[in-house]
Amino acid sequence: MSQGEAAGPGAAKLQDQGWAWMVLLAAVVLQALTLGFPCCIGVFFTDLQHEFQASNSETSWFPSIMVAVLHGGGPLCSILVKRFGCRFVVMLGGLLSGLGMVSSSFCQSISQLYLTAGLITGLGSCFSFQAGVTVLGYYFVRWRTLANAVASTGVSLGFTLWPLLSQYLLDEMGWRNTFLIFGGILLNCCVCGAIMRPIQLTSGSLPQSAKPREEPGSRAEEALLSNGASPHHPTLQQHTRRTKCFQVLQRYLAFDIFCQNKGYQIYTIGVTWMMMGFALPHVYLVPYAIHNGVEERKAALLISIIGFINIFIRPLTGLLSGHRVFTGRRIYLFSLAVLLCGLSNFICVISAEFSVLILYCVILSIAMSGVGALTFQVLMDVVEMDRFSSALGLFTILESITLLIGPPLTGLLVDITSDFHYVFYNSSFFLISAALFMGLSFCALEKKNKLREASRARLDNPSRYHYSETSTEPKAESQSPPVFEYITSI
């Protein structure tokens, strides 16, 4: 049953009340199980290295693939949601996630983990997370913003609980049995999906952008048919296939917006570059702490501290950024948060003492809260909402590429130099450069737009900018003074 099908005569009344709040609770749990899960992989980093005799670079491919697929599988998830509905896709994601982790417990090489935990679990988490977010849009209309903010706290809960649970299970029964238990825990995504029963939408709740539009290429097909071409003509069939392919790309990967919208172009490039360094502390912080003599339990606690602070700071950041003072200026708040993330990494370079690492986690968590709360808000600011889903598809695909290659490349550098400090040097370089690029580029773009608007206003009202010069010599009344028009062009 697709999401738009009826689920009972009174299903439309479920919006913003009653069962909708159970669905919101399920979405919180889903985000804790999916987006929060990769943060605990660093706890197993050292054990996996010793088990498979793998280098830092080889081991880091495993969480990199998981996170990249989790973010980059959005377009595929959208297609499945349209075909089968949110409930089915959430439950399918739970099955894949559980299957991936159960299979991982039997792996005999690090490369097998790439397939099981990396690809299968990552894809399952992507399906459950993105379909779970989508279903909130059907169950909430009036309280949609609040629902999304509450659901995002699940990520912080996952960041807090997963590392603590991982370290406890690892100490008690080893990484293989822990992965087996994780498979069972991730199957709870299916329970969350079962709660998200389909809901019948009223005609008034559908966005105006959902109205059917003329598809690209339809006029060309009509022209071929009007000229006597058969519907089975090879030229027409080939043109139809090209048109359908173009429509899919246009819907899920907005290359046209990327080429035409300078704001979206700058933001996408900046975030893509930022992701080369954003995930590095999550992957390497625990191994770095253990390498410098911090106990394993204390090292795992560092990630939990980041998640715990996020629970409180992220909603506050969302409320602050929603104030009308920051309307149109959220990109600068986002750039500031990214810059703070980059600068905070230098704390780890100064010292690896546990107390210093706690200070680092506090500052990093505050900055990360700003990044997490503003990422999609800024994207909504620079892209029209009727094209947001397709813009988001290209956005997540590009950032998933850098999420995939960032940790392994840094791990290779650590293997060559045997110095974990390069993790934080690299992270700082990518984050600071991305923050400066986005902030300065949007500032220049804003100034350019203001000058263009001023120039356009002068062209629309030329009489306001006419200046006259009159000679001191007497002239006939019929002779009009010369007029000089000054127009600034950009």
UniProtKB/TrEMBL annotation:
GO terms for molecular function: monocarboxylic acid transmembrane transporter activity. Gene3D superfamilies: MFS general substrate transporter like domains. It comes from the Eukaryota. GO terms for cellular component: basolateral plasma membrane. InterPro entries: MFS, MFS_dom, MFS_trans_sf, Proton-linked_MCT. It is a multi-pass membrane protein. Keywords: Membrane, Transmembrane, Transmembrane helix. The gene is Slc16a5. The keyword Transmembrane helix applies. The keyword Transmembrane applies. The chain crosses the membrane at residues 21-45, 61-81, 88-106, 112-139, 146-165, 177-196, 266-287, 299-319, 331-351, 357-379, 391-410, 422-445. This is MOT6 protein. It is found in: Membrane. Residues 20-451 form the Major facilitator superfamily (MFS) profile domain.
